[in-house]
Amino acid sequence: MYCCQELAVVFALCVGRGVLASQLCLTGDFAAQAQQLMDSQTMTSQHPNVTRLLDDLRATLNKRWQEFDLIIYGSIPIGLGTKLSDVDCFVRIPNYNVTEHRHIVEQSVDLLRRQPNLYSDVHVVDITDNDNNVYFTFYHIPTQRHVDTVFTTTGALDNSNLLSYLFRLDKLYLPLGRLIKYWCAVHELSALETMDKLPNYAWYIMTVFYLQQKRLAPSVYELQRHSESATVLHGWDMSFEPIPYAARNNESLYQLLGGFFQYYSQFHFQNYIISPFAGRPIHRSDFIHYDRIPYEFTAYKNLMANNGSCCQIELNTDFCIQNIFEHVYNVANLISHEEAFTILSHIKWAAEMYEELPSDRFLTTILSPVHQVMESNEVNDTVDGSFNNCIDVSDLV
């Protein structure tokens, strides 16, 4: 079941003569507006809240272990964190005994629970039958931040390192990713991996893939070819070599953002896989037949040959967005047909606004919350004369 029907979206602009406390009123041209927005919302690894959180966690775990590293991964080190972003933390203990994994997680939880002035909602998360996948979460009271903490290596850490490299190939890539993330948040198009939404990770992939189509970023396959040694996790090569890459971007942030919506408003989601590893769209049928699997996917072919149909990417979905390193996973496999329609309607409407509105009106228009989505070819874009270029930043979580 694929997406073929267009939905129209009725948007409400941020109007009214008064300005709410949660509103941010943007001034100047598009570049100035984007900078004001990012200055108000961006969270980096150097933020005092992140430093405070790591210092507290390190001091707490030091009561049991003297030697370990705390490594932040996910949106914050990639450069796409917001002021309300959760923190993902990897605790690397030397000579880690994986057979004691569950016991170590439970010991850590006990240490945190002894300091109720610092931590609340501390609990073990056990969502699989594999003890090695157990981790713990908590809420850090001083910084008001939720934290997921793992002790075993996951693919998320490698994904984080790769995306951090790709988003820094040009000075405009991180701003582009941030604006797309804000847009997703306002319209509730992204959420946790277990919900009927595209995870933020999927939107990061879509952003990188869009840049790859413009020859502004290398394929992951190309980066792996330059790697001197493989780092294998669950049968997948997670290595890459951050080679010098001349992006040669001549477009402004405004043009890159508008181009993102234009590209995906015309993308044939029903026929093609978004593959950042290959760096190009791949027809779904190529992953059905073993002899048609593209040459870049040696590990996938080996897995398929040894395990059969149990280890193939899920293709019977509206969107097929391939995991960067573990190519058997479609990171969009949980979204419903209705949610896929909604996402496409937002993309198409944003592309229309890029083509129709002056640049200084584009950003606040697409960041205005949706009032209604309906199956129609009409879009109500009537603007009240009191339009004031303000957005509700409480939506940008």
Automatic annotation (TrEMBL):
<feature type="signal peptide">
    <location>
        <begin position="1"/>
        <end position="21"/>
    </location>
</feature>
<dbReference type="Pfam" id="PF22600">
    <property type="entry name" value="MTPAP-like_central"/>
</dbReference>
<dbReference type="GO" id="GO:0031123">
    <property type="term" value="P:RNA 3'-end processing"/>
</dbReference>
<protein>
    <recommendedName>
        <fullName>Poly(A) RNA polymerase mitochondrial-like central palm domain-containing protein</fullName>
    </recommendedName>
</protein>
<keyword id="KW-0732">Signal</keyword>
<dbReference type="InterPro" id="IPR054708">
    <property type="entry name" value="MTPAP-like_central"/>
</dbReference>
<feature type="domain" description="Poly(A) RNA polymerase mitochondrial-like central palm">
    <location>
        <begin position="37"/>
        <end position="165"/>
    </location>
</feature>
<dbReference type="InterPro" id="IPR043519">
    <property type="entry name" value="NT_sf"/>
</dbReference>
<dbReference type="GO" id="GO:0050265">
    <property type="term" value="F:RNA uridylyltransferase activity"/>
</dbReference>
